[in-house]
TrEMBL record:
Keywords: Membrane, Transmembrane, Transmembrane helix
Transmembrane regions listed in the UniProt entry: 47-65, 85-107, 128-154, 166-189, 196-222, 242-267
Record's protein name: ABC transporter permease
Chain positions covered by the region annotation Disordered: 1-23
Amino acid sequence: MTTLTTSARREDPPPGVPGAPDRGAPGAFAGAVAGEWTKLWSVRAPYLCLLAGLAITGVFTYYYASIARINEHPVQPVGNAAASSAVLVQFTVVVLATVAVTSEYATGSVRASLLSVPRRHRVHAAKALVAAVVAFVAGTTFAVVGTAVAWTGFGGRASFEAGPAALQVLAVGLYYALVAVLTVGVAFATRHPAGALSILATLLWALPSILLGLGGPALAVLNDQLPHGAGEHFMRPAADAPYGPVPAVLIVAAWAVAAHLIGLYVLRRRDA
């Protein structure tokens, strides 16, 4: 009996392979991240989302700048166009991060993922990290492209300073990264793309639109506590903003952390 047990232990698959025991090795999280990275780029959805985001950014920023030029708006930082495009482009990141989670539940492959990495918090954190990194790189790329496109559309009604423009590019990337973490948490909580997208569309677009459409100081204050409302305050800082960029980042981060914890709770309770 002892010989059989020893032999079975020697034949255990290595960490990272479905069915392998999780021994808590220092590289276990790195392996989970590598696995999530590979899975993300093994399907077409992320490529389509990123291409869509690039196209929407180009169209939106040129339209934004052209309207400012035609209506002779006051001169503004050229990066405002790319920051404003987040109201639409953020949903390409939302779809990307949603698919990264819900596609595994749809196909049943989540069972293999949880066998490979039994520590649920590692699976959850690895998906959130990969989605956030991809969203940050995509967001900064979109912002650079959008700024360049908008510069031609503004026709002289925009200002450009390297330092503030670079900060706006990084702010857009950070906002997209936090939205990706928020999305992963919601997707784990709902486990279904329709449910996750409905919640996120309401939170990031429909509810802010309703609050701003109805008007009034109380509703404006409420909108400033929502993810996109706060995000605008650090992507497009203004002198008359109710709070500065740092509190704005903390508000969006608080939403992302709350969603992450809820998603992790559901994952641990309901499992696969």
